[in-house]
Amino acid sequence: MAPEPVNVKEFQELARQVLPKMYYDYYAGGAEDQNSLKDNVEAFQRIKLRPRVLIDVSRIDMSTSVLGYKISAPIMIAPTAYHQLAHPEGEVATARAAAASDTIMVLSYMSNCTVEEVASSCNAVRFYQLYVNKRRDVSAQLVQRAERNGFKAIVLTVDAPRLGRREADIRNKMVAPELKNFEGLMSTEVDIDDGSKLEAFARKTFDDSLCWEDLKWLRSVTNLPILIKGVLTHEDARKAVEAGVHGIVVSNHGARQLDHTPATISVLEEVVQAVGGKVPVIFDGGVRRGTDVFKALALGAQAVLVGRPVIYGLAAMGQNGVKSVIEMLKNELELTMALSGCPNLKHITRSHVVQAVGGKVPVLFDGAVPAGTDVLKVLPLGAPAVLLKTADWEAIFYGLAAMEQNGVKSVIEMLKNELELDMALSGCPSLKHITRSHVMTEHDRFHSKL
Ligand SMILES: Cc1cc2nc3c(=O)[nH]c(=O)nc-3n(C[C@H](O)[C@H](O)[C@H](O)COP(=O)(O)O)c2cc1C
Ligand SMILES: CCCCC(=O)C(=O)O
């Protein structure tokens, strides 16, 4: 028997052992080269704690509230798709664990269990995550069903006009399971033989023309407060506040959408400052320890969402696994607060964290590692185009060696497709939209506070 996990990271290995490879890869994976996936977690290590001593920490209070709903600790459950691929009880088990831990669950639009099943399973406070369908009536009906069933807010995910390029899913030909919520509303079937069926599903159904104006439409179909999830810049944070949203989730979708987005913890403060306390800022991405939660709070988050660890807990031990994951993070946060001299969340301030000095030498574009995102990064720094010279561009050479003319064409087409996707996921319909403010170099990072 595998030993009992002592931290949330250990649930990942248990999940890997019980899950079919296709599902494990889907849960664990990120976009393209998974740079942001690694960075989301590693960036927490570059932030150090500044504990205070000789403060009475005999009683620690972690409770807080989000949109007026009281929760035991600022740790909530992120919306993640297809919980029945992890455990037969699916989202019902996750919701019950949320209720048992006295926290909020955000139910994914892509849940296997229906809105009604989750609502009637327990008394957890629930928010409903929304993807806007090309057929607006489908999304409107789901929002209204959520509202009727006691969900307390809509979390509109805005970083997925298309699905990111998840290469494990492409190789595994990831399935797109039936979704009971859509029965009688629309077909969830996709008819492709190759590649990720999920990606095909998103392409077929997600509305990639969605824009700021459409918040009006969403407000016209629901009275629930609206949070937008997937903000990474001060520009968008300001627009969101102007558009009247009730909350912002700083997120890069667990690094599954646009690779080379910054680690979310490194842009949290930028967003918090732009929002200026007008609405709550919630954070997600790479939270694996109580110290991570503490750091996010110190940088201005109201609460954090946890994605993968919850799924791993569910896969390993069902409802109890999810509860264990949440309780472990809560216990670690409590200990961090005690050892930092913070008896309650109000005591956690910006001066409790500091960015570690040092860092990598900035390398922006090294022509030997071509990828669509590299092109996207070079253009705003002033390059009118990227000149690809056979002599110094290994990929062309490999393409030629592997498949002659077709190989070279494949390499060029792959880069074009990746650039197109990167533009879609960066909100740039044409090259003129790509500006200097779409990238951040290490230099920029050193000159900001974090
Ligand atoms: C397997 C998986 C499925 C996800 N599905 C959704 C989804 O349906 N809707 C959504 O808004 N975000 C989705 N996300 C993103 C999460 O809400 C969250 O932003 C991310 O997981 C946070 O990063 P973490 O996994 O490092 O905690 C998903 C993430 C994963 C890992
Ligand atoms: C079409 C699948 C969307 C689920 C999702 O958001 C994710 O896998 O990250």
Automatic annotation (TrEMBL):
Keyword Oxidoreductase carried by entry: yes
Gene Ontology BP terms: defense response to bacterium; hydrogen peroxide biosynthetic process
Major localization listed first in the record, in broad terms: other
GO molecular function terms noted in the UniProt entry: (S)-2-hydroxy-acid oxidase activity; FMN binding
InterPro entries xrefs: Aldolase_TIM (IPR013785), Alpha-hydoxy_acid_DH_FMN (IPR012133), FMN-dep_DH (IPR000262), FMN_HAD (IPR037396), FMN_hydac_DH_AS (IPR008259)
Subcellular location: Peroxisome
Catalysis performed (reactions): a (2S)-2-hydroxycarboxylate + O2 = a 2-oxocarboxylate + H2O2; 2-hydroxyhexanoate + O2 = 2-oxohexanoate + H2O2; 2-hydroxyoctanoate + O2 = 2-oxooctanoate + H2O2
Cofactor(s) in the UniProt record: FMN
E.C. code: 1.1.3.15
Pfam families, sorted: FMN_dh (PF01070)
Binding site for glyoxylate: Y26, Y131, R166, H253, R256
Keywords: Flavoprotein, FMN, Oxidoreductase, Peroxisome
Residues of the FMN hydroxy acid dehydrogenase domain: 1-358
Binding site for FMN: 79-81, 108, 129, 157, 229, 251, 284-288, 307-308
Active-site residue numbers: H253 (proton acceptor)
The UniProt record lists the keyword Mitochondrion: no
One GO location term (cellular component): peroxisome
Sequence similarity: Belongs to the FMN-dependent alpha-hydroxy acid dehydrogenase family.
Name the record gives this protein: (S)-2-hydroxy-acid oxidase
